[in-house]
Fold:
Amino acid sequence: MQYATIEERTVSIAHYIIDSRCTVREAAKKFGISKSTVHKDITERLPKLNRVIYDETRKILNENREERHIRGGIATREKYLKKKSGK
Structure:
């Protein structure tokens, strides 16, 4: 996706995260940019552009960070269950 400005991209990413409640990694994949770029857009650029959207986006990303270890555990469990059933 091409955007006319970085600001447009930043707001689009924020809206996508809010609408889908996705992670930084998922947003980066959707927009074809790096996780670092998504993080920089959200943490540095968005507060200057729109504080209300920033606050909402930040809340979702904080929830995702708190749940990260749970998702990792589920993925590991599925991996070993798949290995076990394949033998």
